[in-house]
Amino acid sequence: MNALEIKQLSKVYNNGNVALKDVSLTVPEGSFFALLGPNGAGKSTLINILADTVHASSGSISLLGHDLLLERAWCKRRMGVVPQEIAFDPFFSPREVLKFSRGMYGKKADDAWVDELLERLELTQHAHKITRQLSGGMRRRLLVAQALVHRPKLVILDEPTAGVDVELRKRLWDFMRELNAAGTTILLTTHYLEEAEELCDQVAIIDQGKLITSRPMQALMGEVASSSLCLRYAEPLQLSEDDHMTLAAFSPRVYDGQLCLTLNKQGNASDFDAAYQAASQRFGAPVDASVRQEDLEDVFLRLTGTEKKNAEKKGVTK
Ligand SMILES: Nc1ncnc2c1ncn2[C@@H]1O[C@H](COP(=O)(O)OP(=O)(O)OP(=O)(O)O)[C@@H](O)[C@H]1O
Ligand SMILES: [Mg+2]
Q1: Pocket lining: 227 vs ligand 1, CB cutoff 6 Å
Q2: Cα(92)–Cα(54) distance, rounded to whole angstroms?
Q3: Percent of the chain residues topping a pLDDT of 90
Q4: Residue 191 neighbours by CB under 8 Å, 6+ apart
């Protein structure tokens, strides 16, 4: 059974902005799923459609086999959504917010669970303050607690750790991992790609409203991630158009002052030698050479072209 099946989802906002174009993806039940994309990619639009705060222009969604649009009430009781934008009634306390939320889902009061959520999200000390007096990070944690209060099967989090400090972020992820291990499906967006790589077993990348890839994290890293030969020279390099053409087989780029050349996935010795020699012929002997494995951030930048766009802005490449 899949937690979510999204088919050919499109969204055109009233002003003509096309936020999603025919996005189809499947979130397996029990997965820890990262939905990634640059700013404006359409992540929040997709999540807001799931949360019923934005209407899809076309497409279909099913949650645990039930049509999200036709069986809204059934689906709502089984999902908890943390939106990107924070909005609370400023005069309620966190404890009240959580109690009311349970009631809204038609669930009986469960003070023990509310206490546990306050504890795990480190809000116990602030449980009686009015939400207006909470800091941004505290409010975001309250949003997470609110999304969990009815014990949903699927938790959807739109940048749950934006503005949350490093230590708390780690503990929040630990909590998410526990929930996931206990069977809750988790779908999240984040710009912390290192954390996504560590936590998530499935990944989808969207850019400008289009799905670029959706597959298990291991498959993405195994099939798409390659290694790079990084060469440092005494003088910082500028790549000319001619350099780009000559080294084209290695997708040359300047990163952190070094010349980086993509090796084939195995990064075997002959590939290394070929790249090293091709670079040495143009730029002479480097002062330092190293091989680095691509991480999720490298793959993300390559697939979304953000790296190229940034480089173009800085005038590094043509
Ligand atoms: N209410 C709206 N009306 C019109 N256009 C919108 C609206 N909300 C979002 N958009 C546009 O839809 C596109 C996708 O925006 P969305 O908020 O879904 O991106 P995102 O991937 O969540 O980005 P971020 O990482 O910045 O949160 C953008 O071009 C945005 O300008
Ligand atoms: Mg967003």
Answers
A1: no
A2: 26
A3: 69
A4: 159, 162
- Please check whether residue 32 is in contact with residue 202, taking contact to mean a CB–CB distance below 8 angstroms: yes
Q: Whole-angstrom Cα distance, residue 241 to residue 239?
A: 7
What residues does each domain of the chain span? 2-222, 226-293
User: In the prediction, which pLDDT does 293 show?
Assistant: 86
Q: What is the pLDDT, as a whole number, of residue 317?
A: 40
Pocket mutation for ligand 1, best pick of 39, 48, 187, 190 (most atoms within 8 Å of C-beta): 39
The type of residue at 193 is: L
Q: What is the pLDDT of residue 301?
A: 85
In three state form, how does the secondary structure of 232-255 look? Answer: ECCCCCCCCHHHHHHCHHHCCEEE
The CATH H-level superfamily of 2-222 is P-loop containing nucleotide triphosphate hydrolases (3.40.50.300)
For residue range 286-305, list pLDDT tens digits in order.
999 998 888 999 889 888 87
Helix, strand or coil, per DSSP, at residue 122: coil
The interaxial angle of helices 166-181 and 136-148, nearest 10 deg, is: 10
| Domain 226-293 = CATH 3.40.1710 | no
Structure tokens at 131: 């939400």
**How large is the average pLDDT for residues 102-106?**
88
Q: Is the pLDDT of residue 186 over 70?
A: yes
